């Protein structure tokens, strides 16, 4: 067993929940893109309930909004790690950050594609 591992059972779940909330808080405080995506989700998720679509379609409309938030969390984590390693410009650092940005771009395209297909079919 690793000496770096924490507790098990309920204590581990409580700790993990705290770390997750800390991560959401850090992303919201420190990342304008995350705040913008939260705002987009706050608008789009309730809007999904205004359309006469099937439950599955509504679930998909909501899921892609949440997926964009997840992708932004990963993108922000990649940027933080790259910046932690070094602030100097390096081609690999640029590639890592650009790929994270590209992942978010694809997630946003997915929102548009899913919503557009469901609403305008």
From TrEMBL:
Residues given in the record as ATP binding sites: 12, 19, 31, 79, 88-90, 97-98
- Where found? Cell inner membrane
Superkingdom in the source lineage: Bacteria
Q: What is its EC number?
A: 2.7.1.107
Q: What topology in the membrane does the UniProt record assign? A: Multi-pass membrane protein
This entry's comment on the bound cofactor is: Mn(2+), Zn(2+), Cd(2+) and Co(2+) support activity to lesser extents.
Which reactions does this protein catalyse? a 1,2-diacyl-sn-glycerol + ATP = a 1,2-diacyl-sn-glycero-3-phosphate + ADP + H(+)
Catalytic center residues? 72
Q: Which residues bind substrate per the record?
A: 12, 58, 72, 101
One Gene Ontology cellular component term attached to this UniProt record is: plasma membrane
Listed A to Z, the keywords are: ATP-binding, Cell inner membrane, Cell membrane, Kinase, Lipid biosynthesis, Lipid metabolism, Magnesium, Membrane, Metal-binding, Nucleotide-binding, Phospholipid biosynthesis, Phospholipid metabolism, Transferase, Transmembrane, Transmembrane helix
Checking PANTHER family in the record gives: DIACYLGLYCEROL KINASE
Record function comment? Catalyzes the ATP-dependent phosphorylation of sn-l,2-diacylglycerol (DAG) to phosphatidic acid. Involved in the recycling of diacylglycerol produced as a by-product during membrane-derived oligosaccharide (MDO) biosynthesis.
Query: What is the name of this protein?
Result: Diacylglycerol kinase
Q: What is the lineage of its organism?
A: Bacteria, Pseudomonadati, Pseudomonadota, Gammaproteobacteria, Pseudomonadales
